[in-house]
Amino acid sequence: MGGFQDLLQFIFAGITNGAIYALIALGFCVVHNTIGIVNFAQVDFVSLGGMFLFSGLFWSGLPMVVALPLAVGAVVAVGIAVERLGIRPSRSQNHLVLIFLTIGISIVLRGIMKLVWGKNRMAVPPLVDDIPFRIAGAAILPQAVAILMITALVIVLLVFFFHRTRLGLAMRAVASNQTAAMVVGIPVGRVKAASFALAGGLGGLAGVLITPITTLSYDVGVLLGLKGFAAAILGGFGSFPGAILGGVGLGLLESLSAGYWSSDYKDVAAFVVLLLVLFIRPKGLMGK
Amino acid sequence: MMTTRDKLFYFLYLHRTGLTVFGISLLLLVWPLVERNPYNLGLSNLIAIYALVVLGLNLFIGYTGQISLGHAAFFAIGAYGSAIGTTTFGLPVWPVMVAVALATALVALAVGLPALKLSGHYLAMATLGFNIVVYTILVQWDVVTGGPSGFAGIPYLAIGPLVFDNEVRFHYLVWTFAMLALLLCLNLVRSGVGRGLAALAEDETAAAALGVDIRRAKIKVFVLSAVLAALAGSLFAHCYAFVSPDSFGIFVSVDFVIMVVVGGMGSIWGTLFGTALITLLPEWIESLESFKDILHGLILVLILLFLPQGLVTGIVDAIRTRIAVGRHHA
């Protein structure tokens, strides 16, 4: 029975982390679909979410229900600022230049975080009660259930956004053919800014959800973000269902390899599998 | 009829690259006689070692339009390969260096062959993932690599009785390698292969139509750049006699990329400048410790926004335009 109980525990932990990776992967996809680049600042949106949550709770003394949406909102604002100040003024539209720009912005954001919040590790209390309940012997934290529910809700909202709202449809139009979108009068510039706002929101949300589980510091988003990136590629870059599948798949894989092989190499497992997938099925699981 | 003065200028113009290389070599030859501060020499040696990595990386980024965010991993393979080969196994230094370079070529081939079939971010991710894997192994596999505390006791390089064991001797050793690599890269970009590569960076489809074998060209340059990085790693290990994982993380890879961008993608001469600037920058702004990262990133962002060709090319172009405009008005 112990074996099954462990397995269940690992699977649940994997899905929880996978949900976070999926959120980050979706953020990568949104920007990739509208601008065609990998936005490396996505990893810092994740750290920033946690940082703002920490400040809201401990510097301003706000309750969790207020601090959480405020923190996500603040990262949305950062996303917009990044597009407005860092990407839009670019003289060159060369993808290489734009990608390196996001790397530069990422370094600046990390520097600012280090300056404002310092290098120390910080902790944030759990979103909800931290007394675990048991399913078939496996201990499950309400926190993890909350993460899964919020992620699921966000995905439903995203589907609604992309299929039913003007802005969402405009974003899909720009994603499929920018020139054609421009011709029919879609404000492409504004859509690009919106994609950064959305990417900020998704990254920030991933950040506020994960921080109560791990400790927080200015560079916590880097590894998480890169795994989100890996998840996006695993699923087939740019594909939304792929991002979710890739995220959950990666989370499961990591948790199972940590449980049954070695937790020292947990971070490696994700990237080794990613490299293998790239070699065997380069367009990812859901890629065209 | 050409006057003697015209002939002289023509000669200087015709041989400007060779003369510049010769001039820099001459300066490098006498510099240790003037510079007595080993700390400054040490910094310059580090620039030479990094320049080896960045020269190759710049060929790859500037001439194939691809991104590698994992060159610190090839640097690591060179360093740890040399360290383990010469210390743990007690093998002779120079053959180990050659063997490690060859092994790195095979590793680069294994990483590059599948990833280079795809464009842009796939290779960025594959190389980044590869870097994380290599770094984690360096930290975790402590029986072999020494773990987080590093690997000590690596022997110095030597040619017969001449042992490279102080900053002045390192200077001649590493700058010889750096200048040879510079000459190699200058020659490469001016050869037929290089012109094919330039076409490739400009427009992949057009280059293919003109008969450039895109995949083969990309892979060749990728492997060459990895081998240069490994060579730099070996030199690094033998000069410092000590290596630790800190020198080989993904942020080091990012720094290499910044050096390329600051110097100018595709500009061989810019490489030297970019490498020197980014290596020296932390020394100059030491008093601004907490602003260091922000400044680092801002420099990259501002250059990309306003001089996307890099500082050297950008400024030279700006001056040329100014002169041309001046002539036009006159």
Automatic annotation (TrEMBL), chain A:
Predominant localisation class: membrane
GO cellular component assignments: plasma membrane
TM annotation in the entry: 6-30, 37-58, 64-82, 94-113, 133-162, 169-188, 194-216, 228-253, 265-282
PANTHER family: ABC TRANSPORTER PERMEASE PROTEIN (PTHR11795:SF450), BRANCHED-CHAIN AMINO ACID TRANSPORT SYSTEM PERMEASE PROTEIN LIVH (PTHR11795)
Compartment(s) where it occurs, according to its Swiss-Prot or TrEMBL record: Cell membrane
Alphabetic keyword roster: Amino-acid transport, Cell membrane, Membrane, Transmembrane, Transmembrane helix, Transport
Pfam families assigned: BPD_transp_2
Keyword Transmembrane helix: yes
Name of the featured protein: Branched-chain amino acid ABC transporter permease
Record-stated family: Belongs to the binding-protein-dependent transport system permease family. LivHM subfamily.
CDD domains documented for this protein: TM_PBP1_LivH_like (cd06582)
Organism domain of life: Bacteria
Transmembrane recorded as keyword: yes
GO biological-process terms attached to the record: amino acid transport
Membrane topology value: Multi-pass membrane protein
Name of the encoding gene: livH_2
GO molecular function, a single term: transmembrane transporter activity
UniProtKB/TrEMBL annotation, chain B:
Residue ranges of the TM segments: 12-34, 46-65, 72-91, 97-116, 123-141, 170-189, 221-243, 249-282, 294-316
Keyword list, A-Z: Cell membrane, Membrane, Transmembrane, Transmembrane helix
Pfam families cross-referenced by the UniProt entry: BPD_transp_2
Coiled-coil region: none
GO CC annotations on file: plasma membrane
Cellular compartments annotated: Cell membrane
Bilayer topology term: Multi-pass membrane protein
UniProt GO molecular function: branched-chain amino acid transmembrane transporter activity
PANTHER family, per database record: BRANCHED AMINO ACID TRANSPORT SYSTEM PERMEASE (PTHR30482:SF18), HIGH-AFFINITY BRANCHED-CHAIN AMINO ACID TRANSPORT SYSTEM PERMEASE (PTHR30482)
Protein name as it appears in the record: Branched-chain amino acid ABC transporter permease
Species this chain originates from: Desulfosarcina ovata subsp. ovata
Gene that this polypeptide is encoded by: livM
